[in-house]
Every structure is written in structure tokens, then in C-alpha cells.
Amino acid sequence: MTEAPSTTPKVESSEENSSEEETFKILVTHPEVPQEALDLMSRGCKLIMCESLPPNRTEILQKAKGVHGMFWGSHIPLDKEVLDVAGPQLKSISTMSAGVDYVDVEELKKRKIPLGHTPIVLSDAVADLAMGLMLSAARRFHEGRTKIDSSTWENYHIEWMWGQDIRDSTVGFFGFGSIGQAIAKRLKGFDIERVLYTTRRPIDKKLEKQFNAHKVEFHELLAQSDFLFIAAPLTPETEGIFNSTAFPKMKKTAVLINIARGPIVNQDDLYTALKTNQIFSAGIDVMNPEPLPANDKLLTLPNIVITPHIGSATKRTRTDMATIAAHNVLRGLVGEPMLSPAY
């Protein structure tokens, strides 16, 4: 069980000649935060709840003034405007997400406001979904369903609906942190040949041995991977790196899986790569924009499987994420190290 902050979150009243204590106020930007997290924060703190669904920036700005902490439960940009509106008493923020690409991290650092996030805890759920995307893209689940819907079974052809084998394959990872390693752990039961990965720094030698993993340059990752998982954060360096230059370097039998962030892939170029069979297929849980419009051209392709960013969408995982975020906020309020700091 995660330990709560060692002191009850309170702040001395700033009113003249007053010795009373004022309760910390925490802005909760999403009305559906799991109750376990709300119960945790409400012990000694006043929760300022946003009610809009989907979360609304206008309401957030209206309710942010004067709060001491923020439980950021959406991907609405957390930027200088929000911090200015909140005021100088703001001292603790946590997102309920692993990625913080929608947060102006440098502005928070400049103001010396600690930021928490919730990686690691969602790794297993995201890895499970990644395996599903790999299997469904490799074995043409979506295309097979369309054949059923249109009554165009052609199983009299021996080569009908042939997919890609996972056994004896080379599996590549663009990014090989906790999510990538959770996927690699699950792949052990599929008798793959080896793991390649591209990261800024090599992982621990013991982990390399455990996963039979080898660090390679990006161009080698593209050329040698039969299955390629994107599991890296979105940064200026990774944005759009899978593009019209990268796709022709991949095997024509390659399967691409993206469970990281949509903008890492140039979607127009992905469409072309799939349409012209530069790669075999793709499975994506993230896209750009989100929500993806119903008339997006990617949805016209038979060789892509798309899920609506549900990698962490299990009751256990989302509750754990919310609880960690709550602990982060509470610890920041009393000046203790956050359970899961973003920096």
C-alpha cells in the first residue's frame, strides 16, 4: 500500500490576526476521477471539481483561481495561462498520465512547481493491448471481418488471407522503457528470434540478456524488424520520425504498432505506405488528431487496425493511476518528494 504524506495538508491562513488554518484547495479537472483518489485527497483538503464532459478549458480556468494543487485529469494543455490564472500559491500538480507532452514543463520548472505523472503502473495494460494490435494486424483481423460483412469469402484460394508469422521473427522497439519491456516479456511465449531496440542510451546489460535484446541505430531497426513497436515519448526529436523516408526502409512484410503518441508517425505517409504495400500492416491505438474524424482516410484501408487510445483503459489500471496522481499532489503540497515525479 502506498504511504500517504507524513503530515495532514494544511496551509496557514493569510488573513491578518488569524491563527486559524485554511484547508488546501485542489482543482480536479475531470468529473470521473475514480472515487478512491477523491477520497484520498478529500482527507484534509477541499476539492474543487470540474463538471464538464468532455473537460472544458473555460471551466478549468474559471475554477483554477486560488487553488494550491491540481489533479490534471485530461490532456487539455497545462500551460502558462493556467498557471497565471491559478496564482502564486499553486505548489503541486500531477497528471493522470504517463506522457506529459501537453504540459509546459519548462514553465513549471521556472516557477519551481513540482509535477507528478503516472508511468509504470499502466505498462501492463498498454502491453496487453499492444499484443492484441500486433496479432490483429499480423493476421488481418479487420480485413477478415470486412470479408464476412460483405459476404466475400474466398477461402477456395490456398493463399487467401495469409498473414505474418510471429515465431522466429525479429521484433523491434523504438523506445524500450517499461512499456516496451512489458511487451518483450509477453513475447517470450511466441518463440521470437530476437529483440532490437533504438533508444538514446542502452538498457542494463542484464535486461539485454533477459530479452535477447540488442541496441541498433534507427536505420537498422527499420530494415531488420518484422514487427516494430513504437513505445517512445513524443519529443521534438521523435515527432514525425516515421515518415516517407522511414517507411521505404522497412520490410514489405513488416507490421507497425504504435501505442505511444500519434504525432510520432506522419499519418499521411503511413496511409501511403499501407496503400502502396510498402509495409504489410499497422495497428495503432494513438493517432493525430484525437478523436480521429470518422471520414479519415486511414479508416478506408483494410490493412490497419485502429483502437481509440484505450491502452490504459481497465478499471484496475485507471484506479491505480488516479491513486498515484493523488499521492503526488498531496506530497507536493506538504513539500515531500512525489511518489512519481516527472522531473
TrEMBL record:
Belongs to the D-isomer specific 2-hydroxyacid dehydrogenase family. GO terms for cellular component: cytosol. PANTHER family: 2-HYDROXYACID DEHYDROGENASE-RELATED (PTHR10996), FI03731P-RELATED (PTHR10996:SF119). Keywords: Oxidoreductase. GO terms for molecular function: glyoxylate reductase (NADPH) activity; hydroxypyruvate reductase (NADH) activity; NAD binding. Residues 1-11 have a biased composition (Polar residues). Gene3D superfamilies: NAD(P)-binding Rossmann-like Domain. Residues 26-340 form the D-isomer specific 2-hydroxyacid dehydrogenase catalytic domain. Residues 1-22 are annotated as: Disordered. Coiled coil: none annotated. This is Glyoxylate reductase/hydroxypyruvate reductase. Residues 131-311 form the D-isomer specific 2-hydroxyacid dehydrogenase NAD-binding domain. It comes from Musca domestica. Pfam families: 2-Hacid_dh (PF00389), 2-Hacid_dh_C (PF02826).
